[in-house]
Design goal:
ten-stranded mixed β-sheet; carbamoyl-phosphate synthase (glutamine-hydrolyzing) activity; 2 domains; 26% helix; EC 6.3.5.5; Rossmann fold; amino-acid biosynthesis; glutamine amidotransferase; Class_I_gatase-like; single chain; seven-stranded mixed barrel
């Protein structure tokens, strides 16, 4: 069975349908990751997006139970050059096709993914629709051009209720803006006593949990839509050590007086070089974001740039000049990707230790 991808600029790609037999709109993006398609499929940061995988062969190691980044995927579609129908891996439990059918996600195979990627790179991300061959192209294009997609991305993917992930170490409140499970795994690995809370949890509610640290997760969409998160960060800043990732980084930038803007086609992949401004060391990182903190907007604020992207010079890390808080735009938990930046979780815990020690010293000297 054939299926077509219709873009808002009138471009049409026709290929083989796989996955669920449904039609879906989405923002068409691409990722350059060569592995990790299961993590991409289940990453909440892809909420509402139709994802093109630039690596040509997808599905050769199947789908397994261990590599999911969320239980409920939020991706709106998957586009590949060639789909493997017979995976070969000792962990394989089902095919990508079977998984997409199970999760009601449409897929498209066999189109020129290189051409599609070049269109996105030239014109920026475009709205598109995966639909049947019977769909009227002109009508779809007109609908895409006048349709505004939803803005409540974070609300759609965040947990509705707080829940614990117990440990015997520091208590960390993890604010779920669309959390990848890899972040929770890294905190659990360090025996943190984690409490995961919804995106709209207030500063007062978080402080009542008496945390030792606060983690701001990744997530989808425009950070300016998450007003609750920005206000919460303002309320906890300086009171509790804070570490933010991806969307959490962008919200921290906004809360500190900076500004964010949409990138032309975003950073999505597992091989993005990022430079530590202080040491000059370069890390290869996993990234998935469509927005960035504007460098110029940080002038006159208390925020300092700690990392920059070598590909385009955008802000990849921030820290507060006087308060215990830092963030990164990339994913130190990887999932999937390199683990060059995994040490940042240890730095977060060390920051908590230092903060508590300073507090104890102040009490003794009072």
């Amino acid at each position: 069975m054939k299926r077509q991808l219709i873009l808002e600029d009138g471009t049409v790609f026709v290929g083989k349908a796989f996955g669920a037999d449904v039609e879906k709109n989405g923002e068409v993006v691409f990722t350059t990751a060569m592995t990790g398609y299961q993590e991409i499929l289940s990453d909440p940061s892809y909420c509402g997006q139709i994802v093109t995988l630039t690596y040509p062969l997808i599905g050769n190691y199947g789908i397994n139970r261990d590599d999911f980044e969320t239980i409920r995927p939020a991706i709106h579609g998957l586009i590949v050059r060639e789909l493997c129908e017979h995976p070969s891996n000792f962990r394989n439990e089902q095919t990508v096709d079977a998984y997409l059918k199970e999760k009601n996600i449409p897929g498209l195979e066999g189109i020129d993914t290189r051409k599609l990627t070049r269109i996105i790179r030239q014109y920026g991300t475009l709205k598109g629709r995966l639909c049947s061959m019977e769909a009227n192209i002109d009508e779809v294009v007109n609908e895409l051009r006048i349709t505004s997609f939803f803005t409540d991305h974070v609300k759609r993917v965040s947990t509705r209720d707080a829940y614990p992930s117990p440990g015997r170490g520091y208590r960390v409140v993890l604010v779920d803006f669309g959390m990848k499970h890899g972040i929770l795994r890294e905190l659990n690995k360090r025996d943190c006593d984690v409490i995961v809370v919804p995106y709209n949890t207030t500063a007062e509610e978080i402080l009542r949990l008496n945390p030792d640290g606060i983690m701001l997760s990744n997530g989808p969409g425009d950070p300016k839509d998450v007003v609750e998160g920005i206000e919460m960060i303002k309320g906890v800043l300086g009171k509790i050590p804070l570490f933010g990732i991806c969307l959490g980084h962008q919200l921290f930038g906004l809360a500190g007086g900076g500004n964010t803007s949409k990138l032309k086609f975003g950073h999505r992949g597992s091989n993005h070089p990022v430079k530590d401004v202080k040491t000059g060391k370069v890390a290869i990182t996993s990234q998935n974001h469509g927005y960035a903190v504007e460098m110029d907007s940080l002038e006159g604020t208390e925020l300092e740039v700690t990392h920059v992207a070598l590909n385009d010079g955008t802000v990849e890390g921030l820290k507060h000049k006087t308060l215990p808080a830092f963030t990164v735009q990339y994913h130190p938990e990887a999932s999937a990707g390199p683990e060059d930046a995994n040490y940042l979780f240890d730095e977060f815990l060390q920051m908590i230790t230092n903060f508590k020690k300073e507090g104890e010293e102040l009490c003794q000297n009072a």
